[in-house]
Structures are given as structure tokens and as C-alpha cells.
Amino acid sequence: MNIYADGHCDTLKKAFDIKKDLKYSELDFNIKDIELNIPRIQTLAAFVNTCYEDGFKRAKNLVEYYDEIKDETFLIKNVKDIEYVCKNNKLGVILSIENGKAIENDLKNIDWFYEKGIRMMGITWNDDNLIGCSCLTQKDIGLTDFGIEYVKKLESKNIIIDVSHCSEKTFWDTYNNTNKTLVASHSCCFGICSHKRNLKDEQIKAIAKRRGIVGICFANKFLSNNSIVDVNDILKHIDYIINLVGEDYVGLGSDFDGLNDESKLKDICNVSKVQVIEETLIKNGYSQDTIDKIMGKNWIRVFSENLEE
Fold this sequence. Notes:
TIM Barrel
């Protein structure tokens, strides 16, 4: 591989819960399983499950835990940081928030997260919240009035808006109330696998129109309805997006450490196996330039175009 970037994993949450650092080899994403001979960027999400009464406290704990375990990773806050990581073959980290419940009902908490290095934030997880409706909602009313304030505040702070887990109306309300880039950090294509978590064609086109990206998630139930799911199914979703909107708007969104064993792909169960994706792309005739975009350059473009100088 020449480069690698992943738009989403839940390693920070898992490491915090079991009180381990990023060298712990049982984590799907861990430092021991990678070689730092190429530039790497890993998005670490502070995931807030709806079960937490105080979402801000939970997210705050996770973000502060990164400071304790960051080890040889390099926190990316701006474009110069990206350039440094790419030039020096470092392991860069983008910190993100999964589930806008993390701010509870206070938009000022976004400022706190930004100061701590958060550069991408989602809207929902699998449940509705004060901001909007999730993909599993029973009544899709989209963004709330507070939710509209939320996405506008993210945009004003140059925090990338992540629409993974959103309901359709929440997605379109977000699109219609913002102007900058939207990403789906860990999602797949409804046109291949009709799961509620997946994106329909018009949503993918809208993300591409905003120069965003869809990070293909490695969860087998989002990739296929078949009983046997492997790297070839990731390739099908990559092909689908390229045929729909072009090669500049697709990347990887592993969801490492966010999937149970039944949801994992057997051939890409952790970060040590991601080269299988590149090997499969090569076997299927992709050019090295296109492979580099899929494996990392597209995410780096998105970060470079949206973070502050």
C-alpha cells in the first residue's frame, strides 16, 4: 500500500471501556498490527450510545482518554498536520463524534469538542435524539429546529458533518440547511443491500455533489444479504459508487471495534488485514492511481479541503 485512511472506528470507546491503550493487540485497530512505512490516517470516534444519560460526560471521557493513550499517533487538527503526516509516514488521527447526543442540549459543547481536536461529528446513532431522526426511526420527522442550529454550528466551525446513521429526511434536511461537504463515514449502498443503514443513489449523488465521500463499512449485514460475505462484497460497493458518481467519492469506513464477531468479515477482521482490499482491487484491474484514492487519498482530499489551514 502507498497510503491508508479509514473514516471510522470505535476503538477509542472499546479501549476506554476495557482500560487498554492503542498497543493492545486484541483491539481490531491497534498500533502493533501496522507498519509505519506509509502515511496512515485513522479516524477515532468518541461513540456515545443512547443508553448514557449524560452524553456529554461520556464523550468527554472518551476524548480525554485519547490524550492518555495517544502514544505515537499524531492528532490532526489542520491542513498542515495532514501534510506533516503524509510527508513523514506518520500515523495521524482524526477525532470524531458518533451521535450528536454528545452535546446534550448545549451547542456550546461543540466549542469544547473543537478545542479538544474534534474535526468530524455525526448527527444520530440508531435512535432518535434532540437533533434528528435515525435510520431506524419509527416516525421520520428529520432534523428538529435544534438540529438545524446544530448542523449550522458545525459548518461554522469547519467541523465535517457525518450523515451515517441518519434517516432519509434527516439526511435531506441536513443537505438543505448546509452548504459545505457532507460525508458518510461508515455506510454502504442501498442499491446493493437494502438495509436501512445504507444510502440510496440520490443520497450518494448529493454527497458527491458536495465533494464528500462514502466510507464503505465492513459490517457484513450492510454489505450483503448473503450468508457468506467477504472482501469481494466491499468491492461491489466500491464499484457501485464509482459507476454512479466516479472514483473520487468512495473510501473506507471500517467500523473496527464497533462490530461483534458475527458482523465481522473473516478475511478483514482487523487492521492487519486491510491490504486484502488493495490486493483484490489489483486483481480486478484497478489502476494504482484509483487504488490509492480508495485506500486513502479520497479521505485525505476531504480533510484537506475542509480543515483550517
